[in-house]
Amino acid sequence: GAPTISIFQKPPGVIPPGGSTTICCICQCSYGSFVLYKGSDRLHTLELSGSRAEFSISDATYQDAGTYVCHYLEGGTVLARSDELEVSVAELRLPRPNLSVLPGLEVLSGADVMFRCTSAPPSTVCYLYIEGQSRAQLLPREQGDYNLSHVQEGNSGRYSCQCYTRNGSMEWSAVSNTLDLVVR
What are the residue boundaries of the Ig-like domain, all occurrences included (predicted)? Predict the structure, then answer.
């Protein structure tokens, strides 16, 4: 079957103007090339070395925001396309939230885990990011807690959170500290 490509931002989150991030595309492919598109614009082509390509955005501007997609080509033929990755650029005006995890950073498979993202302004909404995934989890606002039941090894990874205010002008926080969860 056709290979599948995953696309994600490393580190994840809304980027401040002047900030930087890397767009990663990963594929179980042997050779060929990756082409990165933003909307319908072809931005970069990278020959594959191994199974991943990394495209850097440095000194970000508002023009860097948009929808990115990776295409995988062999001999000029597109064999696979990634999902869409939304990249956002905004001033980060709110204080940085703090991410904690209960019962701890190392848990046994099958355990229940709770992530807590605490931010100073009460009227914020927070996202939980998992590095390597293109979709963030929206945290239920009540406490900014996110529960994972019966975790598996696949839940291991690098987590962070980021918050924004809902009152008219969307104001973003910086990205929180990162936590590395290990499921044994």
Answer: 3-88, 97-176
**CA-based nearest residue to 167, from 128, 129, 122, 136:** 122
* Helix, strand, coil fractions of the chain, as percent rounded to 5: 5, 55, 45
Q: Are 36 and 23 in contact (CB under 8 A)?
A: yes
Domains 5-87 and 92-183 are alike in CATH topology: yes
Q: What gap in Å lies between CA 13 and CA 162, rounded to an integer?
A: 7
**Mean pLDDT for the stretch of residues 75-99:** 93
pLDDT in tens, 1-41: 778 899 999 999 999 999 999 999 998 887 788 999 999 99
Per domain, the residue ranges of the chain are: 5-87, 92-183
pTM: 0.87
Amino acid in position 127: Y
Are 87 and 11 contacting, i.e. CB atoms less than 8 angstroms apart? no
CATH fold of 92-183 reads: Immunoglobulin-like (2.60.40)
How far apart CA 123 and CA 163 sit, in angstroms, is 10
State the CATH architecture for 5-87. Answer: Sandwich (2.60)
- Residue 84 in tokens: 């869409």
Whole-angstrom distance, CA of residue 150 vs CA of residue 176: 25
